[in-house]
Amino acid sequence: MLEQKLRQTCRELLANGTVKVIIGYGAAPAGQATRAVFITTPEGVEQLVWNDRCEANLVAYLKRPEVRALGKPAIVVKACDERALVVLQQEAQLERANVFVIGMACDGIGAPREAKCRSCEDQVPRFCDVVLGEVTKPADAASARWDELAEFMKKSPEERMAYWQQELARCVKCYACRQVCPLCYCQRCIVDKNRPTVISTSPSLKGNFAWHVTRAFHLAARCAGCDACTRACPVGINLRLLNQSMAKATEENFQCRPGTDPQAQPLIGNYATGDKEEFIR
Amino acid sequence: MSQTISLAGIRQLIGQWLGQGKRVAGPIRVNADTILYQNLTSAEALLLDGCVHPGNSIKEFVMPPHEKLYEYVVKGRDVELRNQEAFPPERLILGGRPCDAAALPILDHIFNWDFVDAAYNQRRQALTIVSLACTRQDDACFCTSVGLAPDAVQGSDALLVPLGNDEYEVRCQTPKGEALFAGKCTPSDRQGSVPAGPAKQFDAKQVEALITSQFEAPVWREQALACLGCGACAYGCPTCHCFDIVDEGHAGGGIRARNWDACQFPLFTLHASGHNPRQGQASRQRQRVYHKFHIYPEKFKEYLCTGCGNCVRRCPAGLGLLSVLTAIQQAGAAAPAAKGEEAKQP
Amino acid sequence: MSRIGVFVCWCGENIARTVDVVQVAEASLQFPGVKHAAHYKYMCSEPGQSLIRDKILADRLDGIVVASCSPHMHLKTFRGAAQAAGLNPYLVEIANIREHCSWVHQDKAKATAKAIDLVRMAVAKVRRNNALQAIKVPVTKRALIIGAGVAGIQAALDIADAGYEVVLVEREPSVGGKMAGLSETFPTMDCSQCILTPRMVDVGQHPRIKLYTCAEVESVDGYVGNFKATIRQKARFVDIKKCTGCGECWNACPQKKIASEFDYGMGNRRAIYIPFPQAVPARPAIDKQACLKLKKGVCGICAKKCAAGAINYADQDQLLEEPIGAIIVATGYQLYQISAQQPTAELSGYGEYGYGQYKDVIDALQFERLVSASGPTGGVIQRPSDGKEPKHVVFISCVGSRDNAKGISYCSKICCMYTAKHTMLYKHKVHDGQAHVFYMDIRSGGKNYDEFVRRAIEQDHARYYRGRVSKITEENGKLIVRGADTLAGTPVTIEADLVVLASAMRPATGSDDLARKLRIGYDQNGFLSESHPKLRPVETNSAGILICGACHAPKDIPESVAQASAAAGKVLVMFSHKEMQRDPEIAKINESTCSACFACVRTCPYQAAEKADVRDRAGNLVKRTARINQGLCMGCGTCVAVCPSKSADLEGFSDQQIYAMVESLL
């Protein structure tokens, strides 16, 4: 059983001192998402589970100082989570040798499967130290990736603006979206900066627009598409759409899919002599 | 002898209130996965019992997430202050859960303690709350552990108890409630009843006593590891009330506003010097539990928690007060009075 | 609260005609933080400056705004005035109410309102200025000069004669560049090599010039005053220290028919060769593509003939490091390739002129080699096809230049002059010959230049037709040139024996790669970019790197020499100080909030953002951060734009200042 294999792998990693802590998924009541567990003893690996509710992106925990203080981690990742890991590597946030990556082949999260899982292109992580399991339920056609966005973009600009005004009015600036995101690792987030204040901290319409649009821009060419932010939002704002619009533009204009090539340079700050320059007049 | 009303009757009441220009709020479905308390635009939008508990609480009707306190206008070298004069409109909340309603009398203490908060009081007085007794519960509910029940009446002006077939028994609690339902109900001899409520998960009195002795215990660090430090729990909590005062404007003028704040953010206790007395998430988690189960009861003889379970449901990391409190109870039972031996919490 | 002084200048009538300066001064007194406001006719004059100095002292001003002309004019003046009164010079701001206001508007009421707004913004800004100190950077007093044509040679001699060391790097086996291959130079008709070779010898013998030939710059690290250049000394296969230049090797080499680069294919050289007799260093090099020993392991005659044992077939490229304080780029030009095959997609050729197809259609540099006394024909002008003396020579101007369709929109500047020169040189050698010139315009603006062209027409009877040539064909050994004389309004057909095409000047091959290595800019034509076309023509936007000569733009020898001395002068100014002073209005990183994502390091055009470690007193790593190299940063603000956490900011143009300026208008 895959769960047993996972526990065994982790037990060995801890027992022979390869890592000091396993960051994995722990049991939760039926129908609820699993939560992160931090196993530091070989016996503790019995807490680890692997099922279709392992939806969290555990890579977010690599930015937490309390977790880093535990020592070299092994981390359980799905392919979507791993993209975040690759981007962190490209942005000098972690040394690959300092993380042991346990990749899990994934059949998709939730029943019925989540939107992003239905169009998943990479069900098996590719840059791990060890990969467990095999895909038994392939995803649907990969072209479905942009369907929701394409449907939304059929609306007129006025309709789209009205939609976002309605959605973002619910935001209370809890920053769950930021905290669960592995790529939001700035030690002083731009929204917390004053002198001058760049983004209003207020949960007003102006402050909410500024926050979410800026966050989408800061994630352009970096977002792993794990949808942790959308799941985390307590008031159900469809943040996935914002990040997808950036992701589509990045792919179409720069052929860049973040987190798919550890050797690649990050898109921001990189140039090729063949880059389009029509916008320079 | 009881008073009853049908769902249709309730919707009619809403229609009347909306027609009178009054505000009505209640649970509505925002999208496929989300039900929130929001202002109703029509009587049909009300989803009286679509979920165990809506995703937010009714505290935002007494303390909005963003509230303008006053305005200032710069004229040459002078500044003119303009108070907020608008009186909050009367508002009816229909379908509040007992755990949400019970939060308001608890909050009344702090907003009338060393400073009488006129803005809060005005909004509070403008509210009429009709709660719906709970016939369902989930794993996150723990109202019984803090002395409440599915049919608790604290803070409600009236309580609706389901009779089945979209009929409800109306139990008015205050003159406001009675005035609201006068002439709208049908007398009946049916009595509503509700299931027992969740089993007690922890003993609040024991936890209150334990946490003082467990200040340095490793349980805080263990429980806080999975916490990502957002404000989802605090903002969804009916009793959390911390706020930040901000000035937003430019050289010509602006506003001073009150925004929600949460003790889970690292900036919450960051000093201008750069020192942060609550440097790590463990000390911030600990503070939250302390505030709710030690400091507030010490001051006001009430727990700052109604066991609604929103913190558990909203937490993106799958935490919430329930697991922390049960862990403390277990840790306390295992190693009582472990004072000063453990390393100080980060 | 601040104590700002506002000083509004009339600038005579330049400002006061369109802006009510008295009103501006009065309005300024209402701005928060302004203690004093005054106006004066000429603020930059001595009385104007003393007005500022006196007020700073009398009112204890802690910042001043001068509402006047562009800061490009007098920012330095007013900073000096402030400093003389004991106020930090960086607490001075200029509100440009001339170039940005009075000179571009006519409505006095609106212009005055705008001027008041401009001053309002400047006051909001200066209140938040920091009292900065100039940054001091040590200087390595050695210059690197890339390219040893006439410009590189001039710059090298100027700097070396001033007492500083020069590293001179030349790609070819000899110094001299294009000028060494010319026959005579306009307008004096001096023999080109005669005036150049003494300089070449000076360079080769100068005690303070370290000359690398057959060498290129591999990379440059560091920053102004503190560069580290890595030179690739390519394998020459001849040890120039042992070699005596006797010539036994190249006389014996069996590979005789290799097209000579120096002669632009008009003549041949050997596989082991010296490019021309007057080469400096006068030592041969082996062309490893043509040498039988290097390619096939046979022959080896040159080594046998060499009495000094200087041949070394095992020679390898070497990488050598040189510490450098300043760099001058003098990489010169190449001629545009006339035929259809072009090096980039933006350029296209002239198939219709038959260049490369007909042997007797040549370009200007090839003609120079024919005319040159030391050229492949000994200075005899003869047709490349059959060696006969040409009686009719057609010279076509503007081949490639000024032609958008070919991708070159600029004028190559020298062709009108050298075409006239070519007609004179031809006539002086072929007395019964006739020169025909097809031209669009005649550009001869230099000293004695127009007189020179008149001589070609009036004394040497060159015929000039104002028109272009549509096609050249060959018939019975003659070239049929079909063109037009637009002044006469007739078509013109000439049966020519030889056609010389004045093709466009382009920057030398590889200059764009070199520019990227050095991080200096170049324009859409590949010419290196100067810092300011009028006021800073030899500097680039990268501190410590200068340009001169044809690599900057088409130009002739006098201009190249002048620019070279100008660049050398700038370098000598840098070297004359113990330390360099740099403007402190550069970027800085808030290291406590920086998350070390290094987006700034990747984006900085000047490589001024570096990765750094923050350590505690015990040496333990606290965190990583980005840090700005104060010697390199040019204050462009790209890092500020790109930083996600807004940890990067610009001194003198901080986010807070810019917000304050905008908000002051709301």
Structure characterization notes:
The complex is a heterotrimer of chains A (281), B (346) and C (666). Chain A is α/β, with parallel strands linked by helices. Chain A folds into 2 domains: 2-132, no CATH class; 143-254, Fumarate Reductase Iron-sulfur Protein, Chain B, domain 2, CATH 1.10.1060. Helices cover 33% and strands 9% of the residues of chain A. The model of chain A has no long low-confidence stretch (mean pLDDT 92). Chain B has one domain (2-334). Helix content of chain B is 29%, strand content 23%. Chain B contains 11 helices and 12 strands. Chain B has helices at residues 7-19, 98-101, 103-110, 118-125, 175-181, 204-213, 219-224, 232-236, 281-300, 310-314, 321-334; strands at 2-6, 23-31, 34-39, 66-75, 78-83, 91-96, 127-132, 158-164, 167-172, 186-188, 243-250, 253-260. In chain B, the strands form 2 sheets. An 8-stranded mixed beta sheet of chain B has the order 3-2-6-7-8-9-1-10. Chain B has a 4-stranded antiparallel beta sheet with strand order 5-4-12-11, with no helix packed on it. In chain B, a hairpin with a 2-residue loop joins strand 8 and strand 9 (167-172). Chain B is globular. The termini of chain B are far apart. The model of chain B is unreliable at 337-344 (pLDDT under 50). With 666 residues, chain C is α/β, with parallel strands linked by helices. Chain C folds into 5 domains: 4-126, 3-Layer(aba) Sandwich (Rossmann fold); 146-229 and 318-332 and 511-578, FAD/NAD(P)-binding domain (3-Layer(bba) Sandwich), CATH 3.50.50.60; 235-316, 2-Layer Sandwich (Alpha-Beta Plaits), CATH 3.30.70; 336-506, 3-Layer(bba) Sandwich (FAD/NAD(P)-binding domain); 587-650, Alpha-Beta Plaits, CATH 3.30.70.20. In chain C, a hairpin with a 5-residue loop joins strand 32 and strand 33 (621-628). In chain C, helix 11 packs parallel to helix 12. Classes of the chains: A alpha/beta (281), B alpha+beta (346), C alpha/beta (666). Chain A binds chain B through residues 28-29, 32-38, 56, 60-61, 64-67, 69, 170, 172-176, 178-180, 192, 197, 200-204, 207, 228, 231-232, 234-236, 238, and chain B through 30-31, 33-34, 36, 55-56, 60, 65-66, 139, 221, 224-226, 228-232, 234-236, 244, 246, 248, 257, 259-260, 262, 265, 267, 280-282, 314, 316-319, 346.
